[in-house]
Amino acid sequence: MTTSAATLPADRLPLVSLLALAMAGFITILTEALPAGVLSLMSRDFQTSEALIGQTVTVYALGSLLAAIPLTTATQGWRRRPLLLLAVGGFAVANTLTAITDSYAVLLGARFIAGICAGLVWALLAGYASRMVPPHLQGRAIAVAMVGTPLALALGIPAGTLLGKELGWRMTFGLMSVMTVFLILWIVAKLPDFPGSTAEQRASLRRVFTLQGVRPVLFMTLAFVLAHNVFYTYIAPFLHAGGMGTRIDAVLLTFGVASLLGIWGVGTLVDRHLRALILASFLMFAISAIGFGIWPDAPAAIYASTIVWGLSFGGSATLFQTASAKAAGESADVAQSMIVTVWNIGIAGGGIVGGLVLDHWGVTILPWTLVFMLAAGLAVALRR
């Protein structure tokens, strides 16, 4: 089953195919973050500390960080659908191993495999979505393909955490494997296939990195994701300090719902107003950070700032991946692998930077740290 953008209606998106990509993203995020929701259950089962179980998230991120660029570069010539099936199939294997193993070493190995698969999936999604539609619909197509991320954050992880408590964490990972098998069948039945790059089309990592527009997008991505993870990672102590420790779940739910609205708004406008939306995202995030900084103990201000933060974050992956794809052209997959790598550096760096700020200056300085990072990203965005 093959197709091209030219064979599609000029004003319609292939939603069934794009939603298969969105489900791949949903499973990727759910696999990454679910251990955080069932940490104590897994710790009790493996008879080890919660800190060690927490390293399963670290190992997952490490797999993505190490694999995204070399794997994507090495597989440029592969047909796209078999490559995506291989990556998605890796989740079925990794989550099944996670569900049945009693060995902590095997658990870490399974999580590392899942991380490798995640790095490849994220590198493929934007380019795959772009190739299914005409140029004037590419931003909207990427937005649909990326909707799995906020859905997983807003609904999937809370639901998975609840199922873990009710049915057991092993059953929850087993259900994710069942979902993955369903996705594999969906991909085979409905997702168009595309050829890989020819030898003449394949670009080296260095060449893609030096393409005009790629480096600014990478810097903006790093600034935005680093700022987000500095605050998201340490939002619990921030809320505790402001007397809202019992409302952490409500604040995170507010953030998740706002993120869904954000990606809907971006999906509607991205093809016509990409640069303006990037600027607006940085500005909105900075305004929310200022709100957190000025009124850390005012519930109404916290919720309002959280809504603005969620709106700015929801469409951020779509914006940066669309900008990267447009800058890289035929080398979009390689550029996306760089975005994946930078994104994971931002995730890891957020924990490190936020921890240092917390230890040395206290929780009240945390929001102002974001303003500094976002100002740097906004300065680059203004120069594009």
SSE diagram, text form:
Elements: H1 15-37, H2 39-46, H3 50-74, H4 80-100, H5 104-131, H6 138-145, H7 148-167, H8 169-190, H9 205-209, H10 214-233, H11 235-241, H12 248-269, H13 274-294, H14 299-314, H15 316-328, H16 332-361, H17 366-383
Percentage of residues in helical conformation: over 70%
Poorly predicted ranges: 1-8
**CATH homologous superfamily caption of the largest domain:** MFS general substrate transporter like domains
How much of the residues is beta strand, in percent?
Answer: under 5%
Categorize the overall geometry: globular
Head-to-tail CA distance between termini? 39 Å
Number of strands: 0
Query: What is the level-2 CATH architecture name of the largest domain?
Result: Up-down Bundle
SSE pattern: HHHHHHHHHHHHHHHHH
Which class best fits the helix and strand makeup? mainly alpha
CATH topology group of the largest domain? Growth Hormone, Chain: A
How is this structure best summarized?
This protein has 384 residues and is mainly alpha-helical.
Structure description:
Helix content is 80%, strand content 0%. By secondary structure, the protein is mainly alpha-helical. The protein has 2 domains: 13-190, Growth Hormone, Chain: A; 205-383, Up-down Bundle (Growth Hormone, Chain: A).
